[in-house]
Recover the amino acids of this structure.
């Protein structure tokens, strides 16, 4: 879907931001570009929609070199959500979300239906929010509108540049969880930039860790945590290794059959198969429950009990007498 082939970017002042960068983002995958400020992650992302242009190498979308495509047409088929949202202050929420569909010439009725669909999906009641202006929204609400706008024309690719970075920790975690739920519905290829290793491990199917414009390691969150490729990767994870290890352990293997009583309950608190051990424990604590249902695309597929969850946590911390 997205491919970087030996891409480098050098700016007019001689600074090289990206050096010989190669990777491929698979269809339907969320790939996180992770690194500190100046690592080249945002520069790499901006070369996908030609906000920046490569000095050497090629960036391909659906097998086509982006440099051979009209940049305006290219951007209209790629969603883009950024940290500071970039909503137009003089436009209502509805008008902000509808920007790209209007440019594409969608009929008014289709645009209206799409706006309502996306606001509902983003947890914003359309009748309450469509006529508000950005200044009348909280930071979390503005970010939801920004994500809705990025999805408005139903693009196959979405670029997200630290989309939750400017939010307070509680709102940020809430939006991360909501977006993970949304991912199962929208089925997009997502390139996600962050400097936060915890966010990368939580959000990414795979992570590309960059330093000084060079790719240091590409793999699943578990690959990076358990098999760091070099001393830089190991140092980057630092003293967070134990917490990150628990974040990469998923609850899928802990599933037990669900009984009919729990299957029929519409629980406000449920788990996903991809939830980590830590996430599941926090949700159980919040719900004051000793077991929670696990759902896949809204349908119950099993339960996880506190007993099995605590046993798995103990095993991963080396506190269990049982062999791993």
């Amino acid at each position: 879907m997205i491919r970087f082939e030996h891409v480098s970017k050098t700016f007019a002042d001689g600074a090289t931001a990206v050096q010989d960068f190669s990777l491929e983002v698979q269809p339907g995958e969320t790939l996180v570009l992770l690194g500190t400020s100046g690592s080249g992650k945002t520069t790499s992302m901006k070369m996908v929609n030609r906000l920046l242009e490569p000095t050497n190498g090629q960036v391909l979308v659906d097998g086509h070199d982006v440099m051979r495509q009209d940049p305006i047409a290219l951007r209209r088929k790629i969603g883009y959500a950024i940290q500071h949202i970039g909503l137009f202050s003089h436009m209502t929420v509805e008008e902000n979300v509808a920007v790209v569909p209007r440019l594409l010439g969608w009929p008014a009725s289709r645009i209206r239906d799409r706006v309502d669909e996306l606001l509902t999906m983003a947890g914003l009641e359309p009748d309450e929010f469509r006529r508000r202006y950005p200044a009348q929204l909280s930071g979390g609400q503005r970010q939801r509108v920004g994500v809705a706008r990025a999805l408005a024309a139903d693009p196959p690719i979405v670029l997200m540049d630290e989309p939750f970075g400017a939010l307070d920790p509680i709102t940020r975690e809430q939006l991360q969880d909501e977006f993970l739920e949304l991912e199962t519905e929208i089925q997009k290829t997502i390139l996600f930039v962050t400097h936060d290793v915890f966010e990368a491990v939580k959000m990414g199917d795979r992570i590309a860790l960059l330093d000084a414009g060079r790719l240091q390691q590409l793999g699943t969150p578990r690959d990076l945590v358990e098999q760091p490729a070099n001393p830089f990767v190991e140092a980057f994870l630092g003293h967070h290794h134990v917490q990150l290890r628990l974040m990469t352990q998923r609850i899928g293997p802990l599933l037990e059959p669900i009984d009919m009583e729990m299957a029929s309950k519409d629980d406000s608190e449920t788990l996903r198969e991809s939830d980590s051990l830590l996430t599941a424990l926090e949700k159980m604590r919040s719900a004051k429950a000793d077991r929670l249902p696990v759902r896949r695309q809204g349908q119950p597929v099993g339960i996880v009990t506190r007993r099995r969850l605590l046993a798995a946590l103990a095993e991963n911390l080396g506190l269990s007498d049982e062999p791993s």
Notes: The mean pLDDT is 89. Residues 1-77+189-241 form a domain with the Rossmann fold fold (CATH 3.40.50.300).
